Amino acid sequence: MAKIKTKFVCQECGYESAKWMGKCPGCNNWNSFVEETAITGKQTRHTFSGITTAGSKPERITSIVSEQEPRITTDLKELNRVLGGGIVPGSLVLIGGDPGIGKSTLLLQVSQQLAKKQLPVLYISGEESTRQTKLRADRLGVSSDSLYVLAETNMLSITNHIEQLKPSLVIIDSIQTIYREEVTSAPGSVSQVRECTSELMRIAKTSGIPILIVGHVTKEGAIAGPRLLEHMVDTVLYFEGERHHTYRILRGVKNRFGSTNEMGIFEMKEEGLREVLNPSEIFLEERSQGSAGSTVVASMEGTRPILVEIQALISPSSFGNPRRMATGVDHNRVSLLMAVLEKRVGLMLQNQDAYIKVAGGVKLDEPAIDLATAISIASSFRDIPTRPDDIFIGEVGLTGEIRRVSRIEQRVQEAAKLGFKRVICPQNNLDGWTFPKSIEVIGVKTIQEALNLAIPR
Questions:
Q1: DSSP summary character for residue 286
Q2: Which are the contacts of 154, defined by CB distance < 8 A and separation ≥ 6?
Q3: Do strands 92-97 and 211-215 pair parallel, antiparallel, or not at all (unpaired)?
Q4: Ranges assigned E (strand) in 126-181
Q5: Do residues 97 and 217 share a domain?
Q6: Is 379 left (phi over 0), alpha (psi -120 to 50) or beta?
Q7: Which listed site, 58, 69, 293, 313, has its alpha carbon 20 to 30 Å from 146?
Q8: 400 phi/psi in degrees, rounded to 5
Q9: Distance CA 182, CA 38 (A)
Q10: Domain that holds residue 128
């Protein structure tokens, strides 16, 4: 007979304790412990047909036959790029995002595209009834005989339906609503999320059926539930953007089958999400010409170059401590660049407030944006605009030198494609490749040289 005892589990990080505590020692959150019933002893688990956990033996890696299964590609090229080329059979993908951002809309559109190819898709909704899902499907124009909708939250029932239908893709919306009867805690708790995800992982790995899971997020923007959830799945995607703006960004945080630097951009329309194939034009379409403090940088998001505008506003400070605010770039990077400009170029910025913003809501974290950020700060400080057809690429060192960056060819080609006439980049990046004829490429070694070219006095 199994022994029943209680334990207290932190709902933020999964830390377990024998007694209640006000503050979790694992994640330092207050009032996050909830009492749960822990069943010790032998338990019976429902297993998917074909799952054999006992009796497995270690194999030599040289004797294992690797089979390259074709990926399941959707009609959304942006989604395929973020996933690394398409949906891998047997993979477990977690998609998180703010409420109302468009997660269910994206997955319903993907379901329709695969169902059109005569691939059976099972869409399991734990938050909506089948009629509510049908209303949303009618609005998006989703209708196919190969798309099956199920309103269920019991993990045992879900497993039985998957075993009977044997679909090509399963979508769970959302994991926080699914529960196992053996676990006595409420749906959405740490124990329930961990056990249900573990069961879905066993189904995906043994049957080869890819499963897409929707995860709720906390008020800080992280996926709700234990951090273990992100470690268990193969791919973690974040759906970002403002609900009051039309553009959405799908960003890969973890991907065992591709790059984690890829980014897909969508536009929310009345009929659903539409992919943006050339995001550089979107980010630059509202750029004002001849304004001081505005520069353009060619940033790499995975394998794709994106041209983004960086804006800076420098104004005299009214207080003893000047303010340093940054949106889309690291705050510490801005302070470092301002110190370099003050020490190496002679700009008196110690009594100036600085506000830096990346237009379009994109977050940039690569070193190649240093030069464009520094030029925008100097342009706003001197109140002299840069040429509107200039692109700035390069990393700025503490001694004022401009250091080489990666993939300079793709960055320059993207700038030439959008009509820019001049690129100011590191001198060490000029060797070993041919420049496009429509654009002038100028190499610089120091931040002073770049300023003399960009903002002539």
A1: T
A2: 178, 179, 181
A3: parallel
A4: 147-151, 169-173
A5: yes
A6: alpha
A7: 69
A8: 90, 5
A9: 10
A10: 73-277
Please give the structure tokens belonging to residue 258.
Answer: 């591709």
Which amino acid makes up residue 55? G
**DSSP, residue by residue, 350-419:** TTEEEEEEETTS----SGGGHHHHHHHHHHHHHT-PPPTTEEE--EEPTTSBEEP-S-HHHHHHHHHHTT
Six-digit token string for 429: 């990046």
Residue type, 23: K
**CA–CA gap between residue 265 and residue 241 (Å, rounded):** 10
Residue 184 within any structural domain of the chain = yes
Same domain, 185 and 315: no
Structure tokens at 157: 């029932």
Domain count of the chain?
A: 3
10-60: pLDDT as tens digits: 877 778 888 999 999 988 888 888 888 765 554 544 444 444 455 578 889
Residue 286 pLDDT = 82
pTM: 0.76
Rounded Cα distance between 305 and 297, Å, is 10
Q: Is the sign of the CA dihedral 182, 183, 188, 191 positive or negative?
A: negative
Instruction: Looking at the structure, tell me whether residues 157 and 290 fall in a common domain.
Output: no
Residues 166 and 253 in one domain: yes
- For residues 3 and 6, give the distance between their C-alpha atoms in angstroms, rounded to a whole number: 10
